[in-house]
């Protein structure tokens, strides 16, 4: 089997999706893996914003929104990790290679798992909201470093690593790497995953409000 190259080739770019020599159809992971990763970053940003709003207002509704945003964002981050691992199996021969990108995602997931562990370990609503908001702000500071900076500073297997001459198809300066067809499909995928995220966040918020109402009714009936 010939070793994969990094040469980007387009076949009838006006009507077909471009592909990368050595990746072929496996390049279609871009339409799932990248939008989910990007939406996870947006979700963690929203979680931080609501955390700041809670610290300024002490409104528990903002804390609930922050937790919902982080929860759905972590779901997206897990799905992005799983799809990336499946792609790695077919492209690199193993589900997990401790590539800098994989390692940074693993550390990021641990950071947000600790966020939810913190929330479940505190019974007092006000104290939980205050500490979670502070933690959520600090946690988001690490997100740009682990997602955008560290994987590009170190050599690795993932497209966009410091020793990757193509910087990946999405960021490639070659026009055939992301032709109009691919741009449209990628934009639709990005929009769809973002809309699904906000829908899931809304469902999580409604479930949280329902749980609180039921708990209040239970306490009133005691």
From TrEMBL:
Q: Which GO terms describe its biological process?
A: cytochrome complex assembly
Localization, per the record, is:
Membrane
Keywords in alphabetical order:
Cytochrome c-type biogenesis, Membrane, Transmembrane, Transmembrane helix
Q: Which residues form a coiled coil?
A: none
Q: List cellular component terms (GO).
A: plasma membrane
What terms describe the molecular function in GO for this protein? heme binding; heme transmembrane transporter activity
Question: What residue intervals traverse the membrane?
Answer: 29-52, 64-88, 103-122, 134-154, 184-203
- Top-rank taxon, per record: Bacteria
Q: Give the way it sits in the membrane.
A: Multi-pass membrane protein
Q: Cytochrome c assembly protein domain: from which residue to which, for each copy? A: 25-158
Cross-referenced InterPro entries, in alphabetical order? Cyt_c_assembly, Cyt_c_biogenesis_CcmC, Cyt_c_biogenesis_CcsA/CcmC
For this chain, the family text in UniProt reads:
Belongs to the CcmC/CycZ/HelC family.
For this protein, the record's PANTHER family field holds: CYTOCHROME B_B6 PROTEIN-RELATED, HEME EXPORTER PROTEIN C
Write out the function statement from the record.
Required for the export of heme to the periplasm for the biogenesis of c-type cytochromes.
- Please report the name of this protein according to its UniProt entry: Heme exporter protein C
| Biological source species | Candidatus Kapaibacterium thiocyanatum
């Amino acid at each position: 089997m010939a070793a994969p190259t990094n040469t980007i080739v387009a076949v009838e770019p006006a009507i077909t999706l471009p592909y990368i020599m050595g990746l072929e159809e496996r390049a279609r992971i871009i339409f799932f893996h990248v939008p989910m990763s990007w939406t996870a970053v947006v979700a963690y940003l929203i979680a931080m914003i609501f955390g700041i709003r809670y610290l300024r207002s002490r409104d528990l509704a903002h804390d609930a929104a922050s937790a919902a945003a982080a929860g759905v964002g972590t779901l997206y981050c897990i799905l992005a990790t799983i799809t990336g691992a499946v792609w790695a199996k077919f492209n690199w021969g193993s589900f997990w290679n401790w590539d800098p990108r994989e390692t940074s995602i693993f550390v990021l997931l641990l950071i947000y798992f600790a966020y939810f562990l913190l929330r479940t370990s505190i019974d007092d609503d006000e104290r939980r909201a205050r500490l979670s908001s502070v933690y959520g702000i600090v946690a988001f500071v690490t997100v740009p470093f682990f997602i955008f900076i560290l994987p590009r500073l170190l050599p690795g297997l993932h497209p966009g690593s410091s020793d990757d001459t193509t910087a990946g198809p999405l960021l490639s300066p070659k026009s055939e790497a992301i032709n109009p067809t691919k741009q449209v499909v990628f934009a639709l995928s990005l929009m769809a995953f973002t809309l699904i995220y906000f829908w899931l966040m809304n469902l999580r918020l409604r479930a949280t409000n329902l749980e609180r109402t039921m708990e209040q009714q239970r306490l009133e009936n005691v």
